[in-house]
Every structure is written in C-alpha cells, then in structure tokens.
Design brief:
InterPro entries: C1GALT1/C1GALT1_chp1. This protein is α+β, with helices and mostly antiparallel strands. It has helices spanning about 5-25, 25-30, 30-55, 90-95, 95-105, 140-145, 150-165, 170-175, 180-185, 190-200, 220-230, 280-285, 300-305, 310-320, 365-375, 390-395, 425-435, 475-485, 495-500; strands at about 80-85, 120-125, 130, 135-140, 205-210, 215, 240-245, 245-250, 270, 275-280, 355-360, 445-450, 455-460, 470-475. The structure holds 2-acetamido-2-deoxy-beta-D-glucopyranose (NAG) (2 copies).
C-alpha cells in the first residue's frame, strides 16, 4: 500500500487526456484504414493462438501447470499505520533526523537484525506541505484554514507560515518571538482532519499509531504488545484507544487551560498526543470510517474553538459518537511516557514497567535513545520488553556508577517540594536527605536551590539536566538497594558500556 498513490494520479490523468486528444486529431483519421487492417490481423492471430491452446498443444502461459506458491504471510507491521504530526515552526529544528530514520524503515531489509524497525505504512502531517528527502509531509489544515467560520486570528498564523515558506524563509526563526502559543492553537485543529485523512488512505489497518515530532517511539516494543492485543477477543475490531491518560478537568483550578469557560465543558479524559497513542480499527471504522463528515461536525469544531487541546477534543468527539464507551487508557498507561529522559520521574514501584514512548525529545535525545534501542533490542528475550530500569541503567549519571557520592548535578524536573526551614546550605540539604525520610518514602536524592536557599528531597530519581545555581546529590546506597530489589535490574548486563562499544551497528 503506497501512501503516495494519489501523487501518481494527476500525472496519469494528464497523460491519458493527451492520448485522447491525439486519437481525435486529423492525422489519426487519415490513418484509419491502416489501423483497421492491423486490428484484423491481430484478431486472426488471437483466434489461432486460442485454438492451439485449447487443443493442449502448448502449455498455456497464462495458467501455469504448477500451483502458485501460497502468498507469503503478511507481517503484522503491514496491518499497522504510523502517523506523525508536526508543525512548520518546529519541523526544521528537530524532525529531519526522525524523518530520515522513518523513511528508511518503510522497507523490510534483506538482512534483518533484532533492532531493525519495519514501518511500511507511514503518513506525515503538518500545517504546510513539504518534502524532506523522499518523505512527503501533508498540509492537514488546508480545508479548515479556508473555512470562514474558524477564528481568523488563529489562522493568521497559518497564513504567516505559508508566506514565510513561499519566500524561502525558515518559519521557525520568526516563531521564536512570541508566536509559539499561536502555533500551539493552530495545532489543535490538526487532530480530526489527520485521522479522517488516515482513515481514508488506510481504511483497513488494525491499529493506527499516532505520534508527534518530539515523541520517541520504541516501535518494535509497541508492535510486540499490539500483536498480543490483536490475538485477544475480537482483536483490532474491539473499541480500543491506548495512550497516556490525562484529565482535562472542568474544575476552577484547570480553567486556565480552557479559553473562556464553555458551558458544555465537562471533565474529559484523553490520551496525551505528544506521548503517542493507538486507536483500534473498531474505533476508527465506527467514527471517521462511517461518517465522511465526522471531521467537519460543527459541534466538534466549536469544541475546538473553545478548547486548549486537540487531543482532548479528539477523545471527546470519539466518545460522543460511541456513547458509553470509556477508552481503556489504564491498560497501557505507564508505557506511554509524557516526559523526556532527563525530566522523567523514575518511580520505584514502576521500575520494571515497559516503555513504548518518551516525549519532549530533542535531536540529541533522539540520537542517544536510538543508540540505546539498537543496543538493547538484540539482548531482549522474545517475550521481554524495554523497561524503565533499562533506561536508568543506560542513562544514569556517570558518578552513580562509581563512588564517591556527588555534589553538583541538578535533576531539575519537578521534585516534590519540601521546604525545610532550617536548611541554608547544600550540605544541610544533603544531611536532611540522609536522616529524614520524605512523606512518600526514603529520600533517594536531593536538590538545593542556592538562589532561593530551598531544599528539595525526593523519594524517586531523575537523570536531570545541569542548571546553574542548583546543587544535587543522589543517595547512591539507597538507589542501589532499590535497583537490586527489582528482578529486571541488570538482566541485560552493562548497557552503558555496551552502548559505548563500537561493534553495535
Ligand atoms: C546478509 O546475510 C547473508 C547471509 O546470512 C550474508 O552472507 C551477507 O554478508 C549479509 N549481508 C550484510 C550486508 O550483512
Ligand atoms: C455531530 O456529532 C454528534 C455526536 O455524534 C451528532 O449527534 C450530530 O448529529 C453530528 N452532526 C452532524 C451534522 O452530523
């Protein structure tokens, strides 16, 4: 199934029209007697050949005596679709590496290794058409941007992007100055037309896997898991949507995320788009697949005008069309992760959970995670998955591998905030971590904000990002004890040193 079929069609149409015109030209009319003679000769030859074949004199080349071999078993990946959503304001900064990799994954290789990813069906969507190498990115807002009922100021950004691009200007350069929120508002309008287009191009795929340009997807891990789901019950025809479940609450506390305060708004649980999500054929066919106007439904479009988030409106639209259906995010939730490796919170009780995605990925993260994946996938048993513990083993700060205990790194991601009145120095913060447990368990690491003289202690661990004015320490013995208490720790050997070796392809 080629995703580029529609691009051949205008060419074919133009070509056949040219032939039609040629056939009606004066020159052709003058040649007709010659043409008739040719037709007669062909007919005679055809009758003769058919007669010979019927008498069984020669083997019929059109029906070989040997039964044709059974068609090769289709690979499960061929029943999946991957969609990637991006925007012109970010595409050129962070996506080219991913796009080149995905493009190379379209074909199954002659020599396969365990880390190879086979992603035959791919569709890319943005707010402007673009080609990156042989990857075609579609403008998914083309129709909605022309709809006079949509708020003009949001689509001013669409026009600005198109004006930049048609003048060969990088739109991300100007996006940095204050228009990020406009790009974000534009983004919410992409979800419904994206799935409508994907459902038209690939109506029969079992599962549609959707990610964004800053999602890292462990494709092979997800494929393994979906293959198991496909064998359960009615498989892909069950109503399923998996992802990172979030709640957009109607409570006052959350109103800042909702423009205005629409009266229809209720709590809505949805799969966070950036963390990646999966929709089953059952859901696609009973929504987008059975109503060509689903994406243009005025009710859903009015939700979009009022809402912050296209992923939330997608969930709402699906649920309104399938009354009583509750998407089972909890079946998959801890595996679709909404953070980047540095800011991800490694919670001890989820240490051995499988990982399908990470989010907020930079080009640097992408390169490192891809190296990690290629190292780890060949080591996994058939029924094993990449776990959070493996990420920690690969990416944990170097000083945790060897003593002594460090000072001077910052985990920076939202540590549970515990302000201790008396703490005035990093050393005292360190001491507080050693002697006083947090409300949620033993202190595994601490961060001291030197400028605010504030001490944060955490019962979980972060890889962290260096940050001026922060000092951080890890309680190495406790972290090691926690790691040792989980079976999955260390089962793949020393991942970090394997990643550093040159033999990994
Ligand atoms: C592919 O596999 C064949 C047979 O296993 C081997 O002879 C060949 O060297 C491999 N090619 C590459 C490029 O690895
Ligand atoms: C829009 O969707 C809602 C919810 O499924 C449905 O009740 C309504 O009839 C749809 N509107 C149109 C014009 O199809």
């Amino acid at each position: 199934m080629s995703s580029e079929e529609d691009f051949d069609m205008p060419l074919l149409a133009a070509d056949s029209r040219a032939r039609y015109e040629w056939a009606n030209s004066e020159k052709t009319k003058r040649r007709r007697p010659v043409a008739r003679l040719f037709v007669k000769l062909s007919l005679a030859l055809y009758v003769m050949v058919t007669a010979v074949l019927l008498m069984g004199q020669v083997p019929n080349p059109w029906s070989p005596a040997e039964p044709s071999p059974p068609p090769a078993e289709r690979r499960f990946e061929e029943s999946l679709l991957l969609t990637l959503k991006t925007g012109s304001a970010v595409l050129y900064n962070r996506s080219p590496v991913q796009l080149m990799h995905l493009s190379a994954s379209r074909k199954a290789p002659a020599n396969e290794t365990r880390w190879h990813e086979y992603i035959p069906n791919q569709l890319f969507y943005s707010d402007a058409e673009e080609w990156v190498g042989d990857v075609h990115i579609r403008d998914v807002l083309q129709t909605v941007a022309k709809d006079p009922a949509r708020p003009g100021d949001v689509f001013d950004e669409y026009r600005r992007l198109h004006s930049s691009l048609s003048n060969h200007q990088d739109p991300s350069a100007s996006s940095k100055r204050g228009s990020e929120s406009r790009g974000w508002e534009l983004d919410k309008y992409k979800f419904l037309p994206l799935h409508a287009d994907a459902a038209r191009r690939f109506p029969d795929v079992k599962y549609t896997v959707s990610v964004e340009a800053d999602t890292f997807l462990f494709w092979n891990q997800l494929v393994k898991w979906l293959k198991e789901r496909d064998r359960e019950g009615k498989g892909a025809d069950e109503l399923k949507m998996w992802g990172n479940g979030n709640l957009l609450a109607a409570s006052l506390a959350d109103l800042e995320y909702i423009m205005g305060r629409p009266s229809w708004w209720q709590d809505i649980s949805f799969a966070h788009g950036g963390s990646g999500y999966v929709i089953s054929r059952g859901v696609v066919q009973s929504t987008f697949g059975s109503d060509a106007q689903f994406e243009n439904n005025a009710t859903f479009l009015s939700y979009l005008d009022d809402s912050c988030c296209g992923d939330a409106v997608l969930a709402q639209a699906l649920q309104e069309r399938l009354p009583g259906w509750i998407p089972p995010y909890d079946e998959s939730e801890p595996r679709f992760i909404g953070e980047s490796p540095a800011l991800f919170n490694f919670v001890p009780h989820q240490w051995c959970e499988a990982v399908f995605t990470l989010h907020g990925i930079t080009a640097f993260d992408y390169v490192r995670l891809d190296r990690f994946r290629r190292t780890v996938e060949p080591l996994l048993a058939e029924d094993d998955y990449i776990r959070r513990a493996d990420l920690w083993e690969a990416l944990m700060p170097i000083f945790l591998r060897d003593p002594p205990l460090p000072l001077g790194q910052d985990p920076s991601g939202g540590l549970s905030i515990v302000t201790l009145d008396d703490e005035t120095t990093a050393e005292e913060c360190h001491e507080a971590c050693v002697v006083t447990p947090t409300d949620d368990g033993e202190c595994l690491m601490w961060t001291f904000d030197n400028s605010a003289s504030t001490c944060y202690r955490s019962p979980t661990v972060y890889i962290g990002q260096g940050k001026v004015d922060f000092t951080t320490g890890y309680h190495k013995q406790r972290i090691d004890a926690m790691r040792a208490s989980h079976d999955c720790s260390g089962r793949l050997g020393n991942i970090a040193s394997l990643m550093a070796e040159s033999h990994v392809a």
